[in-house]
Amino acid sequence: MSLSMKPLADQILILPAAAEEKTKSGIIIPDTAKEKPQRGEVVAIGDGKVAELTGTVITPRVKVGDQVLYRKYAGSELTFEGVDYMIMQEKDLLAVL
Question: Which candidate, 60, 65, 68, places its Cα nearest to that of 95?
Fold first, then answer.
């Protein structure tokens, strides 16, 4: 996917996974009861955060294409070119899957 948006500093742009449509037992979940997903795919990353003491750039540990888990209320939702994304700092990521 070619994206014309580049996050700044340690910001990471994530394409959230689709919300579950039904439970494991087959019950269909209505739109009003769906949980926001807490996982997604990294689609763009910033160059990194500048360390305050040394002034060196600390590059993010994730890379484009990684599947990640993130905090429930982390980041900001945004729509770009008709696609919904989440943008957040690297510190809001919990794990790489």
Answer: 68
CB atoms within 10 A of CB 68: 20
Structure tokens at 48: 């990194």
What residue segments make up the domains of the chain, in order of their start? 11-96
Q: 3-state class of 76 per DSSP?
A: strand
| Mean pLDDT, rounded, of the chain | 87
Instruction: Please state, as a whole number, how many other Cβ atoms lie within 10 Å of the Cβ of residue 48.
Output: 15
Number of neighbouring beta carbons within 10 Å of residue 92? 18
pTM, to two decimals: 0.81
Res 4: pLDDT: 85
Report the alpha-carbon distance of residue 30 to residue 20 in Å, rounded.
10
The residue-averaged pLDDT of 34-58 equals 88
Q: What is the CA radius of gyration of the chain?
A: 15
Architecture of domain 11-96: Roll (2.30)
pLDDT band at 23 (very low <50, low <70, confident <90, very high): low
